[in-house]
Amino acid sequence: MEARVDFDINEAIKLFDSDPSTIPTPEAPQALQECEDDPEALSSLALINSELNPVVDAVAESPDAIMRSSVFDTLQFLLKNSSQIPPTALGKILDLIVSALSTQADIAHADLEAEEQGAIPHHKNLLEMYAFLLRWTISAVETRALEKSASAPAARGRGKTGKSKSGTSKDGTWDAAAQLETALDRVSKVLKLKLSRIFVTTSERDTFIGLFTKPVYHILENEARVKNNAIRNHCFRVLCISVKHHGHAYTAQTSINQCLTYFEHLSEPMAEFLHTLADAYDYSQLAEDVLKDISTKEYSATDLKGPKSVSTFLIKISELLPNLIIKQGALLNNLLDSEAYTLRCAMIEVCGNLINMLSKLSQDDRSDAHKRNIDIFFDVLEQRFLDINPYCRCRVMQVYVKLCDLPHMSSKQGRKRRQTAADYAEQSLKDKSSNVRRNAIKLLSKLVETHPFSAMYNGLLSTESWEQGLESIDANIAALKPPAEELQERAPGEVDESILLDATQADAGAAKNPAEMSEEEKAAIVAKVQKDAETVQDLEKFNKVRSFVRQALRFIEVINDAAEQVMQLLSSKNKSEVIEAMDFFTTIDAYKIANARLGIKRMLRLIWTKGNSDEGKGVQAHLIDCYKGLFFNAPPGCDANQAANYITRGMISLTFDTTPADLISLEQLLSTMMKQGLVNGLVVEKLWGIYGYQKKDISMRQRRGAIIVLGMLALSSPDIIVQEMETCLKIGLGKLGRRDFGLARYTCVALRRISAASGKQQAGEAPAPSVKLPNDHAVLVRLAAMCELESDSKDWFGVADQAISAIYVLSKHPDVLCSEVIRQVAKRVFAPKAPSRPTSSSGPKDEGPDPMDVDEDEEMPDAPTVDAPQPKKQNSALALSQLLFIVGHVAIKQIVHLELCELEFKRRKAEKEKDKKAVPRKSLAPEPTPMKKGRKRGMVKDPTPAPEADADDLDLMAGTNEDDFTDAIAHVRERELLFGPQSLLANFGPLVSDICANNTSYNHPTLQAQAALCLGKLMCVSQEYCESNLNLLLIILERSQDAIVRSNLVIALGDMAVCFNHLVEQDTEFLYRRLNDSDQSVKRTCLQTLTFLILAGQVKVKGQLAEMAKCIEDSDKKITEMARQFFSELATKDNAIYNQFVDMFSTLSADTALSEDAFKRIIKYLAGYIEKEKQAKQLSAKLAARLPRAENERQWRDVEYTLGFLQHKDEEIQKMLSEGFKVVQALA
Question: What residues have CB less than 8 Å from 555, skipping those under 6 apart?
Fold first, then answer.
């Protein structure tokens, strides 16, 4: 008879746990043992099958066959070498053992039911053997699976691989998932046996149960297995039965703690297991024990893996078993004090989940304890707003965003919690962490979206409406207030004498007996009692409403304050923060929050965000989406006409109360939207309708807004203006335009859009087609006439500015036309009775029809007579001011025109060299006269348009060398415009200088302002003129009392620094002085000018950068913001702040007018840009050398404070600081 196995489970487990290869297999087939020295021979499937098949047949016939030594050792030998045998052979072994175990379980169950006590030891032995082999086999399978996944990470990354019914995956490798499901199912079947009758002692049972649970934990270590729902559920089932019925709880507790420590992917599955155990098996004790273990653990701040895994577990279990978490009250306190921020984040999330659960309980399930618990958890959340870690602060706001949707948050207590959250969120907008600020914005948006005040005013949060409502409620309460309350307000010891009876009076006034009262008296008393009761009820109602309104006003106030902070964050470097800020203003605008519109206007600046990155493009695209939602998406239910009206009103409203900077940004935005096809033709028609409406007077700013928007849209589509040119002439440059100079100015801007601006096309692009009109064209005639118009209004200057600019854009010969304008105005100023030229307006003194009104004389026969601004003779000083303004502006435009001519010539020259036979388009032709000759004739006394055709001009230019042409242009600019014998402008250079130099003789403020402006413009034309008048300009800059004059001259000096740098370089000190100007507008202008000059490299920075640094502490917020932006940009230059740091420190420290606190704030800000350790060390060494030379305590403290912000680790410096401090203390 074949030898039987003498199997000892404890010995077998001991050998397996130490080293499976040491398990003896003497009875294994000789063919297999011969392969032990040559493991590769075991890869032969034929060899394996030849020995395995007899084993399979024997076991299949009877599970008792496993008791044979040859059978058992054959299986053990193959499992010892599982890494070498083919996967299919391993699968075959797994199937065999699972099948035999299942059969043996059935047999054992039958014998147990039949009370066959004698068979129990035999069944125990067989079950132990099969359980041991199953553990070994599953371990081998999982080891192979982990090796395969580790060796092919790329394959996992491509997605999940499917498996066929045969257990083979798509890539042809063996997948044991289906077999493991079957195995785990059979294990559950075994565990349902009455094992206490088979395994009498606890140690025997625990050992047997461990043979099943250990492979389950091994399976769970494989992340891919855990993702398989079927396998995961089977594993949970095995563990639940083991815990519930077989005393596996303590071992499971230890295993769960190990899983949470070493396997992150098991955090949520372990929570799900405990939930299954508590819910399906009614065993919550294990979950409580695990939570207690977690609460007693301590994690260091540097340990990331352990706390992260535990955090995920806690969050998940709080969702699945919230009542269990509530029972563990001490757990919250312990973990909230943990150094690991991830655990604190988890507890914040847990509190949110618990509040969510408690608030959703039905009214019957609620108790005072539930309300107390909600308050406790809210208190915890509110404390975490001030957590030291930014991730925790972010998490608490993310939790509040989820809680805002709960019905509880609309209750009386919920409104108080909302208000507290809003206060904290508003404070968090100043947080150092951009992530915290972004989440604070998101929370504030959510609080507004879900606000609980929708019962009044349709849910809108307009401060004005709610304040009016509060006044109305207070009035109602005052009206209902009974006189008795007035008595209660008396002092405690004071008695109202009116209620005292005189001593001589009888007690006749005593209260009557009800029986003695008449029916009328009884009815009156009843009516009075009813009225008093109603009054009390009304008072209670009004008091409740008043409390409600006050809460709403407090909430609105916080949101308004927060909006001011969010406006600052629109300029953040963090793009996601900027996008969140845009969404915030879009949200609060829907609820009519007061500051929403200010923020929406501030958002316009973001259209200039650099689009050279995905983030930059994202900001621009999001801005357009926001504006589209705000102004271009009509309310639902509108037809096409109503939608167009809505969009038109919205677009016009964007132009109200705007600064020039806002309009420039709005222009870029609307032109971009027009280019993208977001503005339809019907909206354009509506805009023209408003602009040209004449049947009755309409809002002045509405008509202005219409032409402003049209001009902006025309930047992308010039045909918008071309098609309605007559309307522009009739309205903006007609009688309405003369009444409203603002309308005329914006009409001139719109007319400029007819022609694309020259020289703005990108390299390699075809130039945009430009429109050039003859000087007798109606548009140019009207523009010239607007310049010649007599008016004492200061708004005329804005019109003339844009009219001249439009002439230079549209005219073929702008110099000729502007020369004529200057002549006409000069004649009017110096010889007022001289007749005007026939081609332009004769001015308001002409009694006949205005020649500008060439269109529809019937509609506008009285254009000259309605010219209101000039009912009397024009002030001579103002007339001269207007002349000087025109002269200066024409001079500037002429040099720009010359530069554009030069660019156009070079472009044409290059084209001609590429293809000499090509004939250029006429629409692109530049000035028709030869450049050198034509520019000289541009300012002569008798200019006439050149009759030559464009093609002939090009022929004349064909032989000109580019350098010669450039020299000729430079000669015209330097020598002819202001000094040529036939130049018209040459007559005004000395005049302007004389007026500026004799400010007491020419003491009219407007004249002096325009003369100084003209002087600055003329100095930008010629170096010689600039050099001769530079001292005069600097004297005016220093001594002028007019802030506008100083601002203009600062800009002019900046332009000169670009044009003639070598002349102005020595005088930049005058520019820096204006940073200390008494007028804030001058300071802002100077700061802007210097910012441009320094960042563009036009001015060499010496020691004056400290003056720019002082602006960081200016009282004007705009100046502070501009200064910070300057240093932020300067920091991107190569070591710019590092190179100037010591000089800035010296100047700031020596400035006695600068307070010590302000000095510290400036230095702290500047030191933030010294990020390189090497630079910090070098600066520390330079500053430390000043410590011994400090003349007073303040100097020493300045150095000490600055060294504190420079990241140095120099012991000598630390020693010097320590010694210096002692010296100072001793002196004190």
Answer: 418, 419, 422, 447, 451, 453, 461
Residues 6 or more apart whose CB falls under 8 angstroms from that of 1067 comprise 1030, 1034, 1053
Q: What stretches of 158-284 show up as alpha helix (H) in DSSP?
A: 177-191, 195-198, 202-220, 223-227, 229-246, 249-262, 267-280
Asked whether 584 and 441 are in contact (CB, 8 A), the reply is yes
- What's the pLDDT score for residue 1099? 83
d(CA 569, CA 584): 11
pLDDT digits (tens, 9 = 90+) for 265-315: 888 999 999 999 999 999 889 998 998 888 888 877 677 777 888 889 999
CA distance 976 to 972: 5
Q: Please give the average per-residue pLDDT across 1034-1043, as a whole number.
A: 92
Q: Which of 431, 544, 522 is nearest to 477 (CA)?
A: 544
Q: Which helix (H) or strand (E) holds 863?
A: none
Q: Secondary structure of the chain: what % helix, strand, coil (to 5)?
A: 70, 0, 30
Q: Which of 303, 305, 309, 379 is nearest to 348 (CA)?
A: 379
Q: Which of 173-187, 756-770, 1146-1160 has the highest mean pLDDT?
A: 1146-1160
Instruction: Report the distance separating Cα 698 and Cα 1197, nearest Å.
Output: 65
CB atoms within 10 A of CB 360: 11
Alpha-carbon gap, residue 549 to 726, rounded angstroms? 55
Tens-place pLDDT, residues 191-237: 888 888 888 888 988 998 999 999 999 999 888 888 989 999 999 99
766: exposed, middle or buried (C-beta count within 10 Å: 0-12, 13-18, 19+)? Answer: exposed
**Closest listed residue to residue 407, CA positions, set 360, 446, 448, 375:** 360
User: What is the reported pTM?
Assistant: 0.78
Residues in the chain: 1228
Alpha carbons 1184 and 1219: distance in angstroms, whole number: 12
Decide if 255 contacts 217 (C-beta within 8 A): yes
Q: What is the pLDDT of residue 386?
A: 92
In angstroms, the Cα distances linking 911 to 903, 906, 916, 994, 1091 are: 12, 9, 8, 48, 38
Tokens 């004698």: give the residue. Answer: 118
Phi-psi region of 1004 (alpha: psi -120 to 50; beta: other; left: phi over 0): beta
**Widest CA span of the chain, in angstroms?**
146
pLDDT recorded at residue 172: 45
* 677 torsion bin: left (phi>0), alpha (psi -120 to 50), beta (else): left
SS3 category, 520: helix
